[in-house]
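Appendix B, example 12.
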Amino acid sequence: MTTTVAAYAAPAAKAPLERTTIERREVGEFDVLIDIKYAGICHSDIHQAREGWGEAIFPMVPGHEIAGVVEAIGSGVTKFAVGDKVGVGCMVDSCRECANCRAGLEQYCLKGNVGTYNAIGKDGEPTYGGYAEKIVVDEAFTVRIPDGIALDEAAPLLCAGITTYSPLKHWNAGPGKKVAVVGLGGLGHMGVKLAHALGAEVTVLSQSLRKREDGLKLGADHYYATSDEATFKELAGTFDLILSTVSAPLNLDAYLSLLKTDGAFVNVGAPEEPVALNLFSVIGGRKTLAGSGIGGIQETQEMLDFCAEHGLGAEIELIRADQINEAYERVLASDVRYRFVIDTATI
């Protein structure tokens, strides 16, 4: 039997989100029913609710930073028990059969993973995200939130945490490596925390020095303003890895000049507009221009365990559900330090 739950949805592209009800599927053999406690607001939610990344499915219930408690389990569930603290990130299924899925890279499923929202599930029905009271998810796409992380601070880790952790690990951020994080927002502040915890020397590259004190408290060793042309001269050839977390188009040639030979510039922010590039910026110095998505389920669990071990959680501003539309505007104005999290008890 399906369950009717309250949620906040965008009824159409660019329309304000409003309270409504949705149907959650019956708990299947391998499903967990999660009582959602907190849901983070990601810039991706805004891109999709406003069709910035292309045509979308409406009504849309955004939210792929979900933290809650298991309320019920299917008869075949072995990973979780009622009462466990769990999380759900950006995907709720994949083909599970392709080479990438078998390698634990479900985020790069060759047939396309199933997004937590704005997607069509294997049952042919639209998926609805975490701005809701409850959600039903296959246990294979559910992760355990360790006791060392508060649930509200854990929610953003399901996207902002894994989106920065995965490339930092892949490109070997650690002792002896110089890592720059472009932007100190929802993604960037977690990039700084994680890169520091991994042992790298961390620099923040931000438009201004407005958040310098915050950046240093979060673990940055250095902080530079990219609006100052001297920054690019002073830091030329400095970094092993640059992680760009911003969703605005950048002057890639300028940023690539900051890399050492064999350095990598990795995009995790996704601008809506195309960006230009002079290929000599990568040819000279054998540099890499790359992108990275989220992480697989196993790596997401690894990230959560790492955060618990190092006492890391997101810096959050807790809001009521009726503040979602205001929060969207504040995200666009960079007026949040550093992640809005919805208290779903207020839905």
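The two ends are 22 Å apart (CA to CA). The CA atoms of residues 251 and 304 lie 33 Å apart.
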